[in-house]
Amino acid sequence: MAEKLKIIPLGGLDEIGKNMTVLEYGKDMIVVDCGIGFPDEEMYGVDLVIPDFSYLVKNAAKLRGMFITHGHEDHIGSIPYCMQEVNCPIHGTAMTNGLIKLKLDEHRLSDKVKLVTHKPGDVVKAGCFSVEFIHVNHSIADAVAFAIRTPAGTVVMTGDFKIDPSSTDGMTDLARFGQLGNEGVLALLCDSTNVERQGYTPSENTVAESLDRLFKGCDQRIVVTTFASNMYRIQAVLNTAQRYGRKVAVTGRSMENILKVGQELGYLKVPEGLIVELGTIKNLPKNKIVIVSTGSQGENMSAMYRMAFSTHKQVDIMAGDRIIISASAIPGNEKAISKIINELYRKGAEVVYEKSEGLHVSGHACQEELKIIHALCKPKFFIPIHGEQRHLQIHGKLAVQMGMNRRNVFIAELGNVLELTAKSCKFNGSAPVGMVLVDGYGVGDVGSVVLRDRKHLAQDGMIVVCVNLSGQDGSVITGPDIITRGFIYVKESDELIEEMRQVAMEAIDRCRAKHVRDWSAIKSAIKNDLSGFLYKSTKRNPMILPILMEI
Amino acid sequence: MAEKLKIIPLGGLDEIGKNMTVLEYGKDMIVVDCGIGFPDEEMYGVDLVIPDFSYLVKNAAKLRGMFITHGHEDHIGSIPYCMQEVNCPIHGTAMTNGLIKLKLDEHRLSDKVKLVTHKPGDVVKAGCFSVEFIHVNHSIADAVAFAIRTPAGTVVMTGDFKIDPSSTDGMTDLARFGQLGNEGVLALLCDSTNVERQGYTPSENTVAESLDRLFKGCDQRIVVTTFASNMYRIQAVLNTAQRYGRKVAVTGRSMENILKVGQELGYLKVPEGLIVELGTIKNLPKNKIVIVSTGSQGENMSAMYRMAFSTHKQVDIMAGDRIIISASAIPGNEKAISKIINELYRKGAEVVYEKSEGLHVSGHACQEELKIIHALCKPKFFIPIHGEQRHLQIHGKLAVQMGMNRRNVFIAELGNVLELTAKSCKFNGSAPVGMVLVDGYGVGDVGSVVLRDRKHLAQDGMIVVCVNLSGQDGSVITGPDIITRGFIYVKESDELIEEMRQVAMEAIDRCRAKHVRDWSAIKSAIKNDLSGFLYKSTKRNPMILPILMEI
User: Fold this and answer.
1) Which of residues 163-202 of A touch B (CB under 8 A)?
2) Secondary structure of residue A347 in the 3-state scheme
3) How high is the pLDDT of residue A452?
4) How far apart are CA B203 and CA B167, in angstroms?
5) Is the pLDDT score of B498 beyond 80?
6) Which end of chain A has the least Cβ crowding within 10 Å, N or C?
7) Coil, helix or strand for A380?
8) What ipTM does the predicted assembly reach?
9) What is the pTM of this model?
C-alpha cells in the first residue's frame, strides 16, 4: 500500500484559538502553528489552554519542523510549552520570530530552539515536504499563508488573512494563489472566522482616516487604546500625531514592547523626537499630547484601566480628554470594556468607541474574500479551519455554493486523521487531542475534578467539620468544630453554625449507636445530614469536608 | 420653610436593572418600580441583586403606594422582597399585575399585598400625589409611563418605552405627553437604555414580516425561540403558523406560563386547535409543526438548550430543522448563545439568528424617539434614568442639544436626594442605597467578605492543614494532615503534598523552638510558610486553613 498524506488538526476546530495542524507523510511530519486557547468562564483560575502534544511526542522522531503563519497568541502562544516536550526548528517571518523569541526568552528556551527567519516567496524543505511562504494581509504585520508541496499534492493553508488592496505593505498575494490553483491544489485549509459576514472587510486604511477626523481640530488631550500587536494601527496613530504636531507617550508593558520590537525590526517608522517619556507630558499643552495605551479589551490592571480608575502612577484621565477606543470587543470582554467606558464618562472624558465611528476593522476575510480564495485555488478537497462549529458548517456551504462537490468538503473534529492521496480524501482513525490547562506553573495538573471542585467552592463556599474521636470507643473527644469560608457571613450566623454543630453531632452519635466504626461511613453521614439540613434552611449547597482525627 | 418634593433613585442609575425611584413630599411617599438587578460575573453564586429597602422601612409610615410601569423583572422582580419589609397597595395594569401576582403567589404573599389594576388614562390618588397612567410601547404588553402630579409640579416618568406607530395596540400616547408639556412639566425622568443609538427603533411589525419570510415555502420543522415576556412576538409566531397551516407546540416553563396568563387576560388571541401538546407533534408532518421554546439567551437547561444537547425528554433537534432565534444577546450572554448555535449546526439544523435577518427589535427608544419626548414634555428639569454612567451622560448631552440649560440636567448617583420646588432643583443629602445580594433563601447574608472568599476559592482552591497539638507542651500529637480541594489533582501530587506537610511541620517546630504558644501566631506561621512555598513552586495562591486542636 502506498503512503498517504495525513492531515490532523490538533486545535482550532470547534473553537476560536489554540490553532495547530499536523501534516504527516511516511517518516516525515511538520506542524503548522502552535497557539493557545483562552479559558472559558467555567474554567475558574485557569490561565490558558494549550493543545495536547502527545501525538507529537509519540512521533517526535518524524518531526521535521514547525511553521508559523503569524505572531498572534492563538498561533504562537503554545510554542514554549510544546518545545519543552519536543524540539525542532521553527520557521517564521521576521516579525513572527521576533515575537516568538520574546516568549522563548521568558521560558529560558532561546538556546535550545532554532528559529529560522524567512521572507514571503521563500521555500523551505522539511523532509518530503516543501513549504512556501506567501504574503497575506492580517491585523498583524508579516503574516503568511503556506503552500505545502507533499508527495500527494499541494496543500494550501491560508492562516488568518484578509484581502486589503490598499494595505501599506501590499495586498495578499492573490497572483500566487492563482498560480497555485492553476498548477493544481489538492486541499485548501482556510480561515473561517468571519464566514458569517457578508461582503468584504474594510481596509485598515479606513481606520487611519477615522483617526485623522478625530485628531483634526481637537484641542484636548487624546488617548488612543488599541491592540498592541497591530503595528499598522500604531503606525497610523504615530503618523496622525505627527501630522497634527502632537507628541506621543506610550503606556502599558505590551505597548512598550511592541514599540521596541517594531522599531528594531523596521516595521515601525518613528519620526525623531515624536515619542516622549510619559513623565514629561505634564509639561506639554493638552493639544500637543497623544497617549497610546494598552487595555482595549478592558483588561484588569491594564494601563487604560488604571488611568480610568485613578490607579495609574503617572497619568489620570481628566475632564475633556478625548479617549479613542480603536478596537472591538472580543466576545466575552464586553462587560469589562463597558466598565472602563462608564468610568471614563464619569470623569467627564469624551469617549469615542462606536462601530459607526470606523475605529476598527477585522483582520479576517468576509464571505466575498473567502470566495476569491476558493475561486483562485480551485482545490480538490476543502477543510474549513479556524472556527467554531457554525463557522465550519457555513464555510462548507460557501464552498459548495462555489461549485465544490459536497462530498469533497471535510468538516473535521479535532484529532480526526484525514488521509489524502492525489485522488482521494477520507477520515481514518484519530489522534489524541484535548485541552491541557495551564494554571501558574502547572501544566495539566488542573483537570475536570479540580475544576468541578473550584466551581462548587465558587458557588456556595465550603464548610470544614473537625472532630477528634476516641480510638478506643469512637466517642467524640473534641469538636465538632465548624469552619466556613464563602458560605455565610459568620459574624451574623452564630445560630446557624450552632445548629450545624448539632446536626454533625447527631450524625456521629447515630453512627456510634449503630456501631458504625468505618470512618468513611461516618464522614458520609455527617456530609449527608449537613447537606440536607443546609439545603432546607438556606437553599445552598456548600462543599462539606468532614475531618476525623483519632486520638 | 416650605416643603419640597424629593426624588430619590434607589436603583437603575449607573446600572442596567434594579429600577426603583422614590418620590416624597411632606408626609407622603410613593415608589415607582421595584426591580431586580443581575449579578455580575464576580458575584459567584449570587442568584439576584435587589435594592436596599432601608429608606422605605425607615419611612414606612409615609408610604402611600407603589406604582409599576411594566412587568419585566428589572421593574417588578424585587416586589416580593420589598413587601416582606414594608406593605402598601401596588398599582399596575392588568398584564403587569398578572405577572406580579405570579411572584406574590410564589412567595406566599398574595393575601398580604393589595394589587390594584388600572388602565391607561386612569388617575390614582396616593397622599398628596396623583398618578396618571399613560400608554407606551415596549417589548411587553400593557406598559405605561406615569405623569405624577405633586404640590411642586408635574413629574413625568417614561418607564421603559419606545415609539412604535404601527404597534398592534396603538402608538405611545404622544398626544398626552404633548398636553402635559403644554400644561408644564417640572421634571422628566426618562429611559436612557438606547441613547447611544441614532435614529429610531424599528417596529415590532418588522419582526412579523421576517417571520413570514422564513415560514414561507419552508418544508421543514420550524423552531422559534424568543423572550417569553414578549407577547407581541409570540402572537406574531402564532399568526404566522396559522397562516401557513402549522400547529404550534410550546416548551419551557416560562413560555407555558405566559401562554396561559396571556390567554386568560386576553392579550393573546389563539385560534382554536392551533396549539397542540408537545407529545403529539411526532404524528404530524414536519412542515406542519412550529415549536416555540424558551432559551433565547442560551440559558443552561432551558428548553432550547435541552433540545440542542439531546437532553430534552420529548424533542430532539434533527438535521434540516429551521431554528429561528428571535432575540438579540443581552450583554454577557453571547457565549452561552453561541454554544447552543454551534450545537444546532453540529446536528445539521439551519439556524437563523443574524441581525441582518430582522428577527429582533429593541424595546427601547433610540435618539430620535427620545428627542420627541423631550420636545413634547419641555421639562424644566431633566433627570436621565435607566442606564449606566455613559448612557446617563449621553442622555444629558442630548437634552442640552434639545435646548435645555446644562444646569437643569441632573445626573444623579443612587441615593442622591434631589430637592425640587416649582422653580428649583438641587442635590441635598443622601439616602442609604446599595446592592443586597440574594443567594438561595438568604437575603443580604452574602456580602463582600463571603464574595472575596468565593473568588479566592474559585481561583486556586483551598488547603486544610489539620494538627493535634498537646495541651501540655504544644508538641504535635497527630498531623499535620493536608486536605486539598480545587488546588491540584491529588492522585498525581503525592510528592507536593508530602512537601506541604514538611513545610507545615517546620513552621510548627519553629514556633515551638521560639516558645510561641499563641495559636493564632502558629496558624499565621503555617499559613505564611505554606503560602510562600506554594507560590514559589506552583505560582498559585490557594486559600490555606490551618486547624489546630488541643488534646
Assistant:
1) 196, 198
2) coil
3) 93
4) 7
5) yes
6) N
7) coil
8) 0.88
9) 0.91
